[in-house]
Fold these 2 entries.
Entry 1:
Amino acid sequence: MVINPTHLAQLTRSSLSWSDAKLRVLAAYRSWLRAAPEIQTMYGMNLPVSALRTKVRQEFERHRFVNQLGVVDVLLTKSNSEFQETLNYWKQLPHILKYFRAEEDPRVRLPDNFMKGFLEGRN
């Protein structure tokens, strides 16, 4: 089987309207959700597919209230490149697992002082 690394590549383009951007975002979201089982098996992750899908939803929800069309286009371009890199196995397991680190959660409480953070292993 010949591997074509550009079969997932998409052209960079600007959305014509908010309805066009919405359709593109939903298509990207659905493609991520459909690829979750494949990502789990490719990278040999010890996480259930539901956890991967939940993380995808959290990442999309994080940018839910973006109100500039250009910013949405940039986020879509980044999403498409991440999708291509992930499914072409251009990433390693730590690159995927970085989304599941506790430090990525903004609600995580920061240490009270430097020494406490140092002893916990935080930078």
Note: The radius of gyration is 17 Å.
Entry 2:
Amino acid sequence: MFESAATTVASLVMLGLAGYGYHRYYKHLVLQKMENAFSPGDPVLDLSANISRIPSGVAGEPERNEHWYPRVEQAKVDAIVRGDEKGHYYLVVGEKGSGKTSMLIDAMHRVGGEGVSMFEAHADTEIFRIRLGKALDFEYHEDYIGSLFSIRGPRDTTPLLDIERAFNKLDKVALRRRRAIGKPLILIINSMHLLRDNEEGQNLLELIQQRAEHWAASNLVTVILNSDDYWVYERLKLNASYLEVLPVSDLTKERALTALKSYRVKYFNIEPSRAMLDEVYGMVGGRLAYLNRVAKSEDMLQTCRDICQTEKTWFLNQCWVLGEEMDDDVMDQQKYASAAMVLAKALADRQREIEQQCDPRKGHVLPEIPLHEARQIMTRADFIQMYDHVNVFTIDSRAMVRADSVPMQNAFREICGQPGFDEHLEATLDRITAIESLGRTREIVAKDLWHKGSYKITTRNAKGALDQATTVEVLPGKKEDEGS
């Protein structure tokens, strides 16, 4: 009896020690894996290296796709990614195709990915959770062996709680790094504009910002958020204490033309004339995505025309107005489209008023309108965020509204300059007003007033006293002449 009891107690003690030992080992393994996620090398760098080795069709182009354009902001980004800039978290904001992600990847290449992790945001919080876990090499306890024994593991939770747990583990890893090296970890979240501006997306953004504020104050982790849209900055500004905004704009004229000329000479052995370079810049401006396409094409001017036509077609497909013949079923869409056309016309008119439309050194001077004034022009406050999301208009960090790009501004000017456009837009606005007026109109029909019947309508004030009385009755009509 005593031997059986001793054997049972010893078995339970051994089982308990084994479980406790595994639990301690598992927690240590989680932190070790997360530390390895910030070791030199990163999946983003491997992917960009593989993409850069894909032939681009340009003879003599090197294997690594070296960035041929100079960026003024690159030195600042390099210092942040190296860990030299501390005490802040950063929002990199700018139009799509302006080179934000390329700068971040270049900075990661310069440090070999050491101490840096980067991943893409997503509107679905479950997918965001999975991508964060992949970037941090964190399994969210999904590989916890305790689940084999029907023990309820810590994974039974929501995506936001999972993300919070991942950040808790990152706290411990960052503390170890700060004690060992003295520099913060760098966490880059790309495409933050893909989050939905609803309750779920705002809760996720608030969670990220709270951690970013804490990490910036303690120099543990430097968070870099990359966004194309302005609404992310609006949400962050509400609770921002350590936020620093890094606006990224198009290249200036001299930088763009110098880079374009050197690229054509190096890889095509052709030196374009100054007149051709000016014409290219006049059509596409200093947007890096456009310059990259133009520089690698055989016919630069035709590529510029294709880009301008693509932007014009996109704007018309999104925001064209249907005129006075439109059906009332499309009124909501036409409110959206007509407001965009009104704002585009205001920008086109303002461009004609600008005396100097292109600075010889800085380049294009696109007309811009303060955000509050743009909302007043459209008589709507909610549409401008959707226009920014579909890359028709853009809102910069100074809350100034302008065309998303030079080709888009050219499209505004061309569309609004068509003969009869003002009348067509005015007819659309009148039709919308008429439909709204019909929707607000109510018809009252009085029935059963034969034999001198009547309706008595009374109006009473707030105290219940009779204020006004109205009687509705039918008067006998005039008989027609028998000869008529």
Note: The radius of gyration is 32 Å.
